[in-house]
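Holo prediction — shikimate-3-phosphate.
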Amino acid sequence: MSRENIVLIGFMGSGKSSVGRMIAAKLDQRFVDTDHLIVQKNGVEISEIFKNQGESYFRDQERLALESLQDADRCVIATGGGIVSRPENIPLLHELGFVVWLTAEEEVIFERVSRNTKRPLLQTANPRETISGLLALRNPLYAAAAQFTLDTSNFPHAGIAETIIGEAALFFEAERKK
Ligand code: S3P
């Protein structure tokens, strides 16, 4: 039987961390962020990893971070936006629990991510275009992996957290009956 974690996937700036923290606080569960696990393990920021070891190394680290969570249960897990780019990660996500895709309109994503410079993939001449291109590539991958999808563009994160908690309870109940 799959474990009862709530797993958040979605593009950079879709609200995974802030919504995830809220869900964890409301459920009194541990919040885990795969980016944070990677930073902890490597002892340097994500941007440094991209710069020094490259994206492929980072994706390997992302996979290892997911594997390290295979005993986690009743946690809220936020993942990096590119987690779906490696097909072998999808079954790992499903083994963890209920996979929720947080979406946001492109404009909203752009506004949210332009507030910080920590995301190496967006340090390009035209971040707007980069976002468009990545969204086009990744949206079908998120859609295929997700068991529930929610748009965070126009709703307060607290309401989104509540909705996910309700949906997760239904999902886990159905899983237990299987
Ligand atoms: C990435 C998203 C980032 C981080 C890294 C790569 C991506 O995480 O994993 O910069 O490929 O979309 P967030 O989605 O939490 O920003």
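READOUT: The radius of gyration is 16 Å.
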